[in-house]
């Protein structure tokens, strides 16, 4: 009896250790799920800021700690965007604007998210505006915001925009 109990405890512990832990978005930001974010973006007429992260991503932790901790960035994002966080390794299902159901991981693959973090700006209807991979600073995000908010993306690439910016 004692051996059976020990075996059951070991089996439970092993199964729990194989369960993937969730990735964490930065603290203090009202991130929502993809589905909820697109609903809110359409209802509020706001663009979407989509953050792809994953559990154990050192660069995600660095950008959360060093960049997203800036109060001015937090205020800018909350005022101008619906904030969506997606775990790039998650099997959680979501629904695209077309009605198609896919996983968060599949959404990442469609948006070429093969390493994290990746930051994506979307129109309220889910159309891609800008995809920015890797660690970013507050200054980077301010420039991306200008590119999106002022509509520069409609007639030039982000590279062209940044090369014209003093």
Description:
With 166 residues, this protein is of the alpha+beta class. It has a domain at 29-136: Glutaredoxin, CATH 3.40.30.10. The chain has seven helices and six strands, in the order ααβααβββαββαα. The protein has helices spanning 2-18, 34-44, 58-66, 71-80, 104-110, 138-149, 158-164, and strands at 47-53, 81-87, 93-95, 101-103, 118-122, 128-133. The strands form two sheets. A four-stranded mixed β-sheet has the order 2-1-5-6. A two-stranded antiparallel sheet has the order 3-4. It is globular, with a radius of gyration of 19 Å. The protein starts with a helix and ends with a helix. Residues 5-22 have low confidence and may be disordered.
**Low-pLDDT sequence parts:** 5-22
Q: How much helix, percentage-wise, in residues? A: 40-55%
Compressed to H and E, one letter per element, the order equals HHEHHEEEHEEHH
Instruction: State the fourth-level CATH superfamily of the domain at 29-136.
Output: Glutaredoxin
Into which percentage range does the β-strand content fall? 15-25%
Oligomer: single chain
The CATH topology assignment of the domain at 29-136 is Glutaredoxin
- Mean pLDDT score: 88
Structural class by secondary-structure content? alpha+beta
- The global form is globular
Number of helical runs? 7
């Amino acid at each position: 009896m004692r051996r059976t109990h020990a075996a059951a405890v070991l089996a439970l512990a092993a199964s729990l250790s194989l369960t993937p832990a969730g990735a964490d978005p930065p603290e203090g930001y009202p991130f929502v799920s993809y589905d909820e974010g697109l609903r809110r973006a359409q209802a509020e007429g706001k663009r979407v800021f989509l953050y792809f992260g994953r559990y154990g991503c050192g660069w995600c932790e660095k950008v959360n700690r060093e960049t997203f901790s800036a109060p001015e960035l937090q205020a800018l994002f909350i005022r101008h965007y619906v904030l969506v966080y997606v775990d790039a390794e998650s099997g959680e299902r979501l629904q695209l604007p077309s009605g198609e159901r896919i996983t968060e991981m599949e959404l990442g693959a469609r948006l070429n998210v093969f390493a994290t973090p990746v930051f994506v700006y979307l129109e309220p209807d889910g159309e891609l505006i800008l995809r920015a991979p890797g660690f970013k600073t507050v200054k980077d995000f301010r420039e991306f915001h200008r590119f999106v908010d002022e509509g520069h993306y409609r007639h030039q690439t982000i590279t062209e925009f940044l090369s014209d910016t003093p």
